[in-house]
Structures
1.
Amino acid sequence: MTLPPPEPPSPRERVTVLNLLPVALTVIAVLLLLSFFGQVAPSLLAITLAVILATALNPLARSFEKRMPRAAAAGLTVLLVLAALIGLGFLAFPPIVSQVAALSDNIPTNSTQLLGLARKWLSTHPQFTAVITDDMLTRMAGQLNTLTGKLTGMLPSLAVLIVGGIATALVTLVMVVFALGNPVPLVNGVLGAVPPRHRVRATHALAQILKQLGAWGRATMLIMLVTGTITSLGFWALGVNNWLVFGILAALGELIPTLGPIAATIPPVLFTLADDPQKALFVLIFVVAFQQFESDVLAPFLIGGAGELHPLSTTIGILLFGGVFGLTGAFLTVPFLIVIKALYQHFYLTEAPDIPDAVAMALISGKVEEQLDREKEAQAQAEKELQEVRDAELTRQAEQGQLNLEAVLEDPAPETNSQPKPPQG
């Protein structure tokens, strides 16, 4: 009797990682892009501002183009905008300077003055002495001295930053004139960089980007104007000192969506709180009421479908882009999201089915969860009944001596109507 030859050992299964090199290169490329954008953030801000302003002013330039060449229409558009800004500056500059001077006079220049003002304020409001102790004020004064020293050392850098900001503004103005005066080569260059098979999608995405960027830019300027005007008038009616400066601060806060208006409300409330806590409460109520009016009425009316972005997406974008690029990234959040959304819609969601709102509402209201629970209970009940039938059948087979242990152990869930295998022997 010859034994059969032994079977050759089966090869070991190996896990093969596919596309490891492309994934690694993609990660490295993303990190390099983040580092590059972090280094060129001011230049990126200038370019993006130029594109936004050019797309926002394009409708006005198109209306002038009907009567003059495109280059002349672009120059006239920019000149009109500059004239309006300069005229507004001449009207607002004297009171702004006087209020800034008054505001700087009211700010304590050293810890001794701050400590004296704080103790004077506590003497007129003794109900806060249990919370704010003299030791706490002394420690805060020491921290203020340290902070003042650091800020004083930053003054040269601040001067360089201001000069750089002015230069960036001039360069941005020149780019706006160039982009408005002859935009055709720029658009053709962008589309020409896309492979021909994707050029139609790229055209649709670019059209959506330009439309939404322009609408967002015009809406932002309008909201800044309305916010600054209403806030200044409200502060003036409440008797807030330096009401015009705080109104301009509220207008500038609109440049950073969601978080900017909240941050702009802190200075007027704090300065008013140091003078009159009751008035500070009225200021806070006015600011909160206006922000609700802005978010519920003003912003939807002015912006409409400009960006079509969810507020949560905008807030997350501000945290992410602001964390990577700083204040510049926070300001550029909406333009970045507009570009990302357009590319996502036209290059990824082209064949994806639309999900009805009823599905989302069913998920939010818990209907889907209830349905899944009912199905799970029904399945568990069916399995329980099947197990009871199976156990009864196996018990019967065991009592009759017909239980096939091999079949039961190899197949723990046989069909209930299957016949037991005859015993082998």
2.
Amino acid sequence: MSTQRVFVARLTGCAVFDPVGDRLGKVRDVVIVYRKDDPPRVIGLIVEIPGRRHVFLSIGRVTSIATGQVITTGLINVRRFQQRGGEVRVMTELIGRRVQLLDGSGRAVIEDVALERKRTGEWDVGQLFLRRPRTSASPFAKGPTTFAAWAEVSENQEPGVPQSAEQLVASYSELLPADLANTLLDLPSERLLEVAEELPDDRLADALEEMPEDEQVQILEALGDERAADILDAMEPDDAADLLGQLSDERTEELLELMEPDEAEDVRALLQYEPETAGGLMTSEPIVLSADATVAEALALIRRHELHPALAAAVFITLPPFETPTGRFLGTVHFQRMLRYPPHERLGAIMDDSVDAVAATATAAEVARMLASYDLVSVPVVDEGHRLVGVVSIDDVLDDLLPDDWRTRDDASTAPTSGGVA
């Protein structure tokens, strides 16, 4: 008889604590193994620890699963999780799978899985929460739901029919872009592509921007041409240019032709620069205003939620036109300085013209020295005519200076300080 039941969809995202209350990470998935005559057995949890690394937590180390939290013995092996043969991840591989009900009532899709704790302390797969095919022609209608025990269904995934990834995508909705990228890269390759197909363009674009270049190319090339162009449209121009720079000239031109003209124009402008220069690192969409604009106008622009924090730290003053390449670059007004003046103050009266812009041909090392010397988070980039063509932010420089594999390295410094190491 079961003494406790937990649904995986609710368990995913729960915080994991050691016995003294120190937080170790978050649950990202549940690992099970199939058995011949019994329901699958739970062998552990996949936990995301600081540093965005996914590690394995044996179910034997779990002392309690309560509302919104998992309590452990404090012993966690901090090596990156590697899936072994015979292991199945519930959120990643089981949810969304099609099954046949053995009572003859038809097919259904697994939407959630209940884990049940036995009196022996072991955890098994209990009931499955299923959704049957919809009976209405309305695109907004959903099929009826039902529960079934594991023994009451059989798996019948048809060859060539992709496993539904809707539930998995929904579970990723709250992840930050870097966490989403890391989570996607932990999926088996086929499942990764299934999830990528289901993700909205902007979410997939955000995730791609946080991935190593090889993985970016692999995912982009697996998408159809039209979808690939839509994803590039949704990416920041500098990130899109970096990604296209990994492709052949012919393939790059094909995708640029499919992109929105304005977005493609920005990317083409960036592709003319060498990757290791300020022009190759910059984004071409900084906030540009005239000297007659007011503090209130500038603050309204940097409040936009979609704006990257480094780009929101300052606005750049030029002569018209105010789209890159602009008129002559005049100076910078930093966010902190704006806060010291009334809303009606003209930006031209408070701009900082003491820090020079860098040339588009400047090296990445020169840009890094400029940022470090003046404690900046971004630096303006100008062409030969001293027109503003873009801005290099500190994260662009860090991406260039860090090792190519920095996103996936298992450095000891990323391990949590609380809890032991098994």
